[in-house]
Amino acid sequence: MPYDHAIGKLRRFGLVACFCAGAFAQPVIFQQPLSPRIANYDIDVKLDAEKKMLHGNETLKWFNKSGGTITELQFHLYLNAFRNHKSTFMKESGGVSRGNKIDKDGWGFIEANKIALASGEDLTGSMEFIQPDDGNPDDKTVFRLPLPQPLKPNDSIIVHIDFTGKLPQPPFARTGAKKEYFFVGQWFPKIGVYIDGKWNCHQFHANSEFFADYGVYNVRMTVPEKNILGATGLQVEVKNNGDGTATHFYHAEDVHDFAWTTSPEFVEFKDKTQDVDIRVLMQPDHAYQGPRHVEAAKAAVEYFQNWYGDYPFPNLTVVDPRRGAGGSGGMEYPTLITAGTAYGLPEGIRGVELVIIHEFGHNFWYHLLASNEFEESWMDEGINTYTEIQIVNDKYGPVGDMINWLGIKINGLQLHRGQYIFYSDLDPILRNAWGFYSGTSYGVNSYAKPGVVLTTLQNYLGKEKVQQVMRTYVERWRFKHPKSRDFFNVVDEVAGEDLAWFFDQAFFSNAVLDYSVDRVFTREIKKAEGYDFTLSVAKPDSGMTNGKSQSNDSVDANAKSKMYESGVNVRRLGTFKFPVEMVATFDNGEKVREKWDGQELWKKFTYLKPSKLVSATVDPDFKIPLDLNYTNNSKAVKGSSLGVNKLSVRWLFWLQFLLDQPEFMNLLSAVNSIF
Ligand SMILES: [Zn+2]
Fold first, then answer.
1. Is residue 191 within 8 Å of residue 15, measured between CB atoms?
2. Strands 315-319 vs 276-282: parallel, antiparallel or unpaired
3. Last residue of some domain: 459, 476, 508?
4. Ligand 1 centroid vs 650 CA: distance in angstroms?
5. Are 268 and 415 found together in one domain?
6. Residue 675 CA, ligand 1 centroid: distance in Å
7. Which end of the chain is more exposed for a tag (fewer CB within 10 A), N or C?
8. How far apart are CA 175 and CA 163, in angstroms?
9. Which residues lie at CB < 5 A from ion ligand 1?
C-alpha cells in the first residue's frame, strides 16, 4: 500500500513520516530500530522488460559490529547460480529445482561491473571469486573484496556497486521472468554475514536457502509505466518518468532481504486484519480466488500474532505467480510472499491456505529470527512446518484439515509424516544444507521430520507449554540469528526439564523411533493341580503391572468364576528411546493403561483377571507421530477383532490408498518442492 496509508502499524510506533537529510535520505517506519541494521542498501534498478535484464547501482552502508578488525568483505552473487551448467547449483541440482527444469535458453547471471568506495577509490580489479564450500572454480556465486584499509570495530564502510543482471526464463529456483511477469529475488550483490570472527558467505547450493543481516532498504525500481508492482516494505512514491516507464520507490526497515514483482496483469485485492494491511496480487485467470487468498492471509496473520508473538511490520503482500512461472511460487521474503494455485482448485483441497499460512510463517522463522539456513535449515523450514501443522489443524481440522474432498480426509500432519516415514534415517536433522545424502533427505530433514519431531515434543510437554516456548523464543531471539542450541535452551527453560536426551536423538542422530506390540496372549487358568496352589489376583480395576500384583487380594484359582492370565510384550524396535503408553483392552470393556519409559529393548506386562485380553495398543492416542510404523502398534489376541484402533486403521487405509495413486505421489513431491 502507499506508504502514507499504512497508518495502522505506524501509529503504534508514533510515526512521524520524515525524510532525513544526507546520502541515506529515507522515510521512517519504526521510531526505534528493531534490529542491529548492519547491512543497509540504497538500490536504483531499471528493468529491461524485453531482454529480462536488470541494470542497477547499489550503495551499501555496512557497519562493523563484530568487535574485530575486518580486512575484506564477502558478497553473494546469487544469480550466477544460473549462469551455466558448471555452477555448483547446477551441478548439485542437475538443472532441476523445486520440480522445475531450467530452460535451455533461460539462463541468468549477474555481473558486478564496477565496485568503488565512497572516496571514489575503484576496487573492481581486486574482487576475487571464491568457493568456500566446494572449491568449484566455475562457481561464481561468492566473491571477496580485500579492503585497502582495515575496517575497525564500530566503523562503517560505504560501497558502490554497478551491476547488470539477467533473469532466468521462466522463473527458476524462486526468481525470473515469464513474458511480462517478473519475480525478482536474490537479484542484487548482497553482503554476507560476519559472525563468530569470520565471514559466513556460502555459495548458492541446490539445497539451501539464505542467511543475511538486517538493515534498511531504499529501492527504486523502474518498470513499464503500465505495470503494477509489489515489493518488500512500503511504497513511498511512484513517479511517471514520461518515457513509458515509472519508478516505484519502496522503503523497508529491519529486513534482511528485498524482493519485488511486477506485471501489467495483476488484479489487486486489499484487506486488513489486526494491525496488518494485506495486499494480494492475483493473476487474471485466478482473480476469482482473490478473496480466498485474502482470507488465508488474514488467518495466517491472526494465528501467528495470537499464538507466537507480534508481527512488527505494517503490511503483507501475497503474490500469485503467473501460469508457467511456478518456479517463483511458494517462497518467502520479508513482508512479501508468493503463493500458488490452479484454476478450479476445490475449496476442500486447501493448497492455497496451506501455502499462504506456510509462507507467512516464514516471516517469523526466516525473517524475524533469521537463522542460518545454509547450516541449520530446520530452524526455519522445520519450525515453520510445525507451526503450519498446528495452525492448519486448528483452523480447518481436526480431521481433513489439508484435504477434505470427495470423502477423502487428510491432515497436514499425515502428509508430513508420509514423507518422513520413507526417509527417516538417511541423515540427522542438523547438517549443512548441501551436505545431506540427497535432495530428498534435505527436504525431509528440513521440513517434514522436524515438523513431526516438534509435534511429538508438543504432545509430550503439552500444547500450552510449547506455545509458551515459541512466544519466549520469538521475543528473546528476534533479530538475533539464533542457533539450534538457543532454541533447545528456551525449550529446557520453559519446560523446566533438561531435554538433551530428546534433542540429541531427534536432531543430532538418525535414530528412528518404533515401538510395537510384539505379542499378546490370554489363557484360562486351569483348575489347580498339585499342592497348595494359590494365585495373587489383581482387582479388575487396577490390573497388574510389571508382573507384580498391585492388589493384596489373594484368590484361589478354583473360585467360582473363571480366571485368565494375559500378557502383552512391547518392543522397542528403533534406537530412539522415548516414553510410551500402552492400553490393554479386555473383553468386559475394561482398559488398562500402562506407562513405560521405553529405555530397554522390551517390556512385558502380565495380568490375571476374570476377563480375557482382547487387544493391546502402544501409543493409543497417537501422541508420537515420530513412531515410524503405526501398523505394528496394535495387536489383537487370535480370534478377537482389533476394534480398539479404528482411527489407526482408517488412517492406514487412506495412506495406503493414496500411496498407490501416482497423482498423489506427484502432489506430495510438489508440496515438498514448493516450499
Ligand atoms: Zn518454507
1. no
2. parallel
3. 508
4. 30
5. no
6. 4
7. N
8. 17
9. 381, 675
Question: Are 502 and 544 members of one domain?
Answer: no
CA of 665 to the centre of ligand 1 (A): 19
The boundaries of the domain holding residue 474 are 378-508
Cell 508440496 -> residue: 671
Measured distance CA(144)–CA(72) in Å, rounded:
7
In the reported structure, the alpha carbon of residue 446 is separated from the centroid of ligand 1 by a whole-number distance in angstroms of 9
80 in any annotated domain = yes
CA-CA distance, 123 to 143, in Å (whole number)? 12
Map grid coordinates 503439552 to a residue: 462
Parallel, antiparallel or unpaired: strands 408-410 and 535-536: unpaired
Q: 56-86, pLDDT tens digit by residue?
A: 999 999 999 999 999 999 999 999 999 999 9
Q: Residues 287, 430: one domain?
A: no
How close is the Cα of 209 to the center of ligand 1, in Å?
10
Name the 3-class secondary structure at 610. Answer: coil
381 C-alpha to ligand 1 centroid (Å): 5
Residue 504 lies in a domain: yes
Per-residue pLDDT reduced to its tens digit, 429-445: 999 999 999 999 999 99
Chosen domain end from 296, 322, 338: 296
Task: Evaluate whether residue 469 is within a structural domain.
Answer: yes
Are 258 and 252 within 8 A, CB to CB? yes
> CA 564 to CA 286: how far, in whole Å?
65
Separation of 571 CA from ligand 1 center, angstroms?
Answer: 36
For 309, left (φ over 0), alpha (ψ -120 to 50), or beta? left
Measure 75 CA to ligand 1 centroid, in angstroms. 24
Residue 151 sits in the same domain as residue 234 = yes
Same domain, 205 and 92: yes
CA distance 425 to 427: 6
The CATH number covering residue 493 comes to 1.10.390.10
pLDDT in tens, 284-323: 999 999 999 999 999 999 999 999 999 999 999 999 999 9
**CA of residue 383 to ligand 1 center, whole Å:** 10
Assess whether 492 and 532 both reside in one domain.
Answer: no
Do 136 and 224 fall into the same domain?
yes
Nearest-CA neighbor of 309 among 274, 257, 336? Answer: 274
**Do both 281 and 430 map to the same domain?**
no
For the stretch 1-14, pLDDT in tens is 444 444 445 544 43
Total tally of structural domains belonging to the chain: 3
Q: Which segments of 359-471 are extended strands (E)?
A: 403-405, 408-410
Tell me if 304 sits within 8 A of 361, measured CB to CB: yes
